[in-house]
Amino acid sequence: MVGSDAAAPGSFGVGVDKIRKRPDFLRAARALRQGTTGFHLQANPRGDGAGPTRVGFTCSKKVGNAVARNRAKRRLREVARRVLPEKGRPGWDYVLIGRAEVTASHDFEQMCRDLEWALGRVHAQA
Questions:
Q1: Helix or strand or coil: residue 78?
Q2: Can you give the residue ranges of every domain in the chain?
Q3: Which of 1, 4, 56, 68 is such that its CA lies 20 to 30 A from the CA of 11?
Q4: pLDDT at 13
Q5: DSSP tally for the chain: helices H, then strands E
Q6: When comparing pLDDT for 114 and 3, which is higher?
Q7: H or E element, residue 95
Q8: 38-77: per-residue pLDDT in tens?
Q9: 103 contacts 68 by C-beta, under 8 angstroms
Q10: Separation in Å, CA 56 to CA 4, 23, 33, 72
Q11: Which helix (H) or strand (E) holds 8?
């Protein structure tokens, strides 16, 4: 990465952190959900409205072998990097789940629009 504006590897923008612990993933799984063509979104308002937006990613073996799962997760990370700093809410956890045979090959710009749409739906449910 060249230039002073380049984000650090693994960063998702200002105010967006990674979910790292299994209990946080499980809480998101029991909260709000919204499916899209390219992935599923789980969203959990933590109740600490001042905390950072957090995001996690998962792809099961249904998505494919390790190469396919890693490609799908890379695409999900980039979608989150583009959309969540503006559309995500502080104090919320989001988990993006890859879909078999779709996430790795679906149109990237459409996936960004799908995430914006899904965020609007889960925020309206809250």
A1: helix
A2: 16-125
A3: 68
A4: 65
A5: 3, 5
A6: 114
A7: strand 92-98
A8: 999 999 998 776 788 899 999 999 998 999 999 999 999 9
A9: no
A10: 26, 12, 14, 13
A11: none
Q: What is the mean pLDDT of residues 88-112?
A: 91
Q: What is the mean pLDDT of the chain?
A: 86
Task: Give CA–CA dist 115/91, Å, rounded.
Answer: 18
- Residue type for 119, please? L
Q: How far is it, in rounded angstroms, from Cα 47 to Cα 12?
A: 21
CATH numeric code, 16-125: 3.30.230.10
**One-letter amino acid identity for 84?**
L
Q: Are 28 and 42 in contact (CB under 8 A)?
A: yes
How far apart (Å, rounded) are the C-alpha atoms in residues 46 and 53?
Answer: 10
